Amino acid sequence: MTDFQDIADRVEIEALRGEFSDAAMMRDRARLASLFTPDGALRMPNIPAELVGREEIRVVGERLQSQWDFFVQTTHPGTIQLDGDTATGRAYIQELARTLDRRQGLNYAVYHDRYQRTAEGWKFAERVYEVRYLDTSPLAGSAPRAAQGSVADPEDATASPAPTASFAEPASAERLERAASALRANGFAAEILDDAAAARARIKDLIPEGASVFTGASETLRLSGIDEDINAGGRYDAIRPRVLAIDRATGADEIRRLAASPDFVVNSVAAVTETGSLVLASGSGSQIPANAGGAAHAVWIVGAQKLVPDLSTALRRVEEHALPLESARAQAVYGMPSAVNRLLILNAEPRPGRGTVLLLREAIGY
């Protein structure tokens, strides 16, 4: 190999590393995945995540980045050792990041790389991400939002927030299909049904007679008749009536155990994203354990107006739309307003067959 070829290879590998950071910063996961060999691997034990193959690198990367409020990555040159059509090296990384659930920090890290010469040029055969320093102190800055009337990147859903009025309008058939596909890719079963009556009938197919069922406090369940079917119909071992019959002062532990691990939990959500995530909010937190994984099975019935583009918009929907309506209901029923004291975000379902999302074409609940 000539000296010129050696120089050319080093320049191309350095460009490859720069392209990686640019694709990450521009949220272009398809381009980032294309920088790897078909069986290339991206391993990030600190997250943790271990992604093998271009499709997994793209899909999981999109799910991870949907959780960002902002993310900044700077790559500094490191070493490169050439060995014919393969090479190894290190790149040094500085990152600033904050997620939508307010995890944040500054870190310095190292990418331990293996490279492979291909017909398309040099590609990553493997990148292993090692954090060397992490500071989780609150970050003073924020991600700037596009001013009204400015030209924003159409791919950046956080740049031009949807008007609050859209939180009550049913999503289009195309958006519902996109959300259903994303949910399935994330491990949920997802069905699109015409209306609440169809969901009411479908529940009887999904839940066997005699199963223990806990229903969340949900206007969707109340308005659809599903709450009454489960808790007063006699077909199931209904947990909510049993919980309500227990003295809260002396039976708190029994209430907690009953609500946390039924055979089925049936609930709605505050928002579902087109990227395949579910967002549930709670004042007391009593329904969170079963939805998060305590129940053996979960069924969520979701009105079409609850579909939003991403997690950033989902959190806005919780605070700006669902909370005021729930607070008004709680004030009337309990004499006190509600609050978002617990927030559950389900980005994927790791247990196949556990979670089913029934997306309705009509708006119901809030």
Describe the structure.
There is one protein chain. This protein is α/β, with parallel strands linked by helices. Helices cover 34% and strands 31% of the residues. It contains 11 helices and 17 strands. Strands 1, 2, 3, 4, 5, 6 and 7 form a 7-stranded mixed beta sheet that branches. Strands 8-17-14-11-9-10 form a 6-stranded parallel beta sheet, with helices on both faces. The protein has a 4-stranded mixed beta sheet with strand order 15-12-13-16, with helices on both faces. A hairpin with a 4-residue loop joins strand 1 (36-44) and strand 2 (49-52). It is elongated, with a radius of gyration of 24 Å. The termini are far apart.
In short:
Helices cover 34% and strands 31% of the residues.
Identify the overall geometry: elongated
The helix tally amounts to 11
What's the SSE pattern? HHEEHEEEEEHEHEHHEHHEEEHEEHEE
Task: Label the structural class.
Answer: alpha/beta
Strand percentage: 25-35%
Instruction: Report the mean per-residue pLDDT as an integer.
Output: 88
Tell how many strands the DSSP assignment holds: 17
> What is the share of helical residues?
25-40%
Distance between the termini: 67 Å
Flag low-confidence runs: 146-165
Sheet of most strands: 7 strands, mixed
